[in-house]
Amino acid sequence: MKIELETVNLKGIEKARMEWFAYRRSGGKLADYLLTTSAKTEKDNIGYFTKILYLEPADKSGVNLCINAGQCKKICLEDSGHMGMENQRCEKNGQKSARWKRTRYFLAEKINFERDLIAEIVKHIVFCQKNNLKPVIRLNGTSDISWDHIIKMFPMVQFYDYTKVYRRYEQYLNANKLRNYHITFSADENTNLSEWFKDRKRGTIAIVFDKNSFKSIVARGWVELNGKKIPVVNGDLSDNRFLDKPKLAIVALLAKGKARKCNLEFIRKYYDQTGMIV
Fold it and tell me: Using 50, 70 and 90 to split pLDDT, how confident is the model at 59?
C-alpha cells in the first residue's frame, strides 16, 4: 500500500508498529469496523449510502498522513461532534479510540488492513444492492492518502475525497483514469484564490468560512475573481461533491467545532460590500 509522504518517516512508522503490537499483546482488539458513517453524509443523501474511513489526522500518530495540513490540523474535525465526544470518552476511561486502532493497524499491518478494508467495501456493495442504494465511499475522512489501487478494484462504486496535495489534484483533472473517483481541492491559509482561478476552466475548491461570511457568500451564490463569475456551492447541504454541477466552483464550508472560536487564516472571510474573499 502506498503512503504518500514527502519523506518516509521510518522512526514514526516503527514507533506506531511498536505501539500497535504492544497493544495487541495486552489483549487489545481491532476496531469494530474500518468504514463508518457520519451525520453529514446521512443528510440529504437520498439514493446513496456513504461509508468513510477515519484515521488519526495529520501527524497525530507520529506519521503524517495528511502531508500538506497546515493550520487546519490545530482544529481538525476529529475533535468536534461525535468524534470529539469519542476522544473525550476514551481519554476518561483510558481506552484507545477507533481512529487510534485503525491508524496503528494501517501502519503496522498494511496487508491485513487492506484485506479487511476490501472485505468491508464488498459488504457495503452487497448491502446497497439489496436495498436499492448506490454505494459511495470516502477513504480520506481525516487523512490525505493515495488510495488509487483500491479504487481501481471497484469501478461500480463512487469514491470521492478532498485533498490538499496540489499535484494529485492536477493529475486528477488532467489525466484521471479513475472515472469513479471525484476529488475536490481543499484550500488552506496559503492558497491564493486569484492565482488558483487564473486561466482555470474547471475544478472545485473547498473553502472554510466563518459564520457570517458563510451565510453571505452562500446567499449570493457567486463571486467574481479575475473577471470570472465563479459559482458558490453550499457544501454543508450535502457531502456528495461528485454531484456538484458547476465544473468550476467554490464549495463553501462553515467553520465547525473549535474552528468557530479560532482566528486562523485558513478560515476565510467574505465581504459582501466588496465581493472580496480574504
Answer: confident
